[in-house]
Specification:
Strand content: under 5%
Helix content: over 70%
Mean pLDDT: 84
Order of helices and strands: HHHHHHHHHH
Shape: flat
Number of helices: 10
Distance between the termini: 40 Å
Length: 202
């Protein structure tokens, strides 16, 4: 993790095809239970989100590894050992929605036909973010789960009007998946089931 951190800080502008591997290493660290490891990996990931996503290199990062970046941040949010990191990870994922809305051209290839571009924005941009948030609702503790739900529906309020009808078909599947009866089967205690129903489905 330290090697990846130093490489990103020193050579981010020179990285081309290595972003997927970088996010893979950071994702593995995100699931650790050692605070020092998780914090170092999280700070590096936030550095990428805060700088590389808002600089002249963002097009390269987004086009090559946006889904990997979202999955990585989702892993940090789902780490139940460190609530403060989980909360900040939700904020970072919320910022991803802003990047998609502000710069949709970064999620398509200029050589693609115009009719192919809108579906690619969904597959490469919106779907990974919304699916990642749905995973967090299913896996996180109450406070992070509540924050995630609020952010997810806020994204839909702000940007949902611009979604294509076909996108909503996929989106409703994501939402219904959150409230599927199979989710209750993952809880071993009746108290956990009641808490889930009372705080998530109400």
């Amino acid at each position: 993790v330290r090697c990846v951190t130093q490489m990103v800080q020193a050579k981010a502008s020179n990285i081309r095809s290595g972003w997927k591997n970088i996010f893979l290493v950071l994702s593995l660290a995100a699931a650790d239970n050692e605070r020092g490891i998780v914090e170092m990996a999280f700070k590096t990931t936030c550095h990428i989100f805060d700088t590389c996503f808002s600089s002249n290199t963002r097009g390269l990062v987004i086009s090559s590894a946006f889904m990997d970046a979202v999955n990585c941040m989702t892993e940090f949010a789902c780490n139940t050992f460190f609530a403060d990191i989980s909360v900040e990870a939700v904020r970072q994922l919320r910022s991803c929605a802003t990047h998609i809305a502000d710069s949709p051209e970064l999620f398509v290839n200029a050589e693609e036909a115009p009719e192919d571009r809108e579906p690619k924005i969904w597959v490469r941009g919106w779907f990974p973010v919304l699916f990642g948030l749905s995973r967090m609702v299913s896996r996180c503790k109450l406070d992070v789960r509540t924050l995630t739900l609020n952010n997810m529906f806020e994204i839909l309020k702000l940007y949902g009007a611009s979604f294509l009808e076909s996108w909503w078909t996929d989106l409703l599947k994501i939402i219904f998946r959150i409230f599927d009866d199979k989710q209750l089967e993952t809880f071993q205690l009746e108290q956990e089931r009641h808490e889930w129903l009372g705080t998530t489905c109400s």
